[in-house]
Design a protein that fits this description.
The chain is of the alpha/beta class. The protein is 39% helix and 20% strand.
């Protein structure tokens, strides 16, 4: 839990430099980064003050998070997220409040209408995203693990790729192998493009049958412990033409 505290402290230091007393955080990736809350965008918000931090969510998440939030983060259970957020702003003594710049205008307008007249409400473009660019050791370990899972799944997939199987079958098998090794889900729809379809930069796996002498391009990645990978590989099925060898430097 220490890494969550370190992230919160970095944000608090950034806010202080920007002459802000606090920040309203609604994006799911950012609430998770700061507190571990994985409900996602729309399922909870975090109010960060200089001395206090509060996660506001509803009863669906109470049992899961009431005993496992980072030190210094308290929990309020309600469906009135933004009304409760304004209560926290008042309780924390926040007079200059920042918010993520992609907050929908409807929510911005609503929150502003609830805030006291003496509280400013200012957009902070990419404030937390900038902090997230520098990975801590826990994140680096998670990224390495995610890449290892994807690579291992691909290695085990290779014998499956042969004439007669379809691109979709290859994609499904790779997804299965990745999950077998601990992946949560694919980062994006797994791309398998064989033969002439290899010219499609984002060709979705189709029912095209893979044939001998073709090149097969596979673009894949998987979430593992909430961090992900993105890998592209091109392999030859059997003997390929001299022209393809030239392009692929085989």
């Amino acid at each position: 839990m220490k890494y969550f505290l370190a992230r919160i402290q970095k944000l608090q230091a950034l806010l202080k430099k920007l002459n802000l007393d606090g920040m309203l955080v609604y994006q799911g990736f950012n609430t998770k980064y700061l507190t571990g809350f994985s409900g996602g965008t729309g399922d909870g918000i975090v109010v960060v003050g200089q001395k206090k931090v509060r996660l506001i969510t509803d009863a669906r998440y109470e049992a899961d998070y009431k005993d496992r939030l980072p030190e210094g983060v308290d929990l309020v259970i309600t469906r009135a997220y933004y009304e409760e957020a304004v209560k926290a702003v008042n309780e924390f003594g926040i007079k200059n409040l920042g918010f993520e710049a992609d907050l929908p205008y409807e929510l911005y307008d609503y929150v502003e209408s609830l805030l006291p007249a003496d509280v400013s409400f200012d957009a902070l473009p990419s404030a937390i995203e900038t902090l997230r660019e520098i990975k801590d050791e826990k994140e680096l370990t998670a990224l390495r693990h995610a890449a290892q899972v994807s690579v291992q799944a691909f290695k085990e997939l290779i014998p499956f790729i042969k004439p007669g199987v379809t691109e979709r079958q290859v994609a499904n098998e790779l997804d299965r192998l990745a999950k077998q090794h601990g992946a949560q889900k694919a980062s994006f729809d797994t791309i398998v493009a064989s033969g002439y379809r290899g010219a499609l930069p984002h060709g979705e796996a189709s029912d095209k049958v893979i044939e001998a002498g073709e090149l097969v391009t596979i673009d894949f990645g998987y979430y593992v412990d909430d961090y992900t990978s993105d890998i592209t590989r091109t392999i030859a099925v059997g003997h390929v033409s001299d022209e393809l060898k030239k392009y692929m430097k085989l």
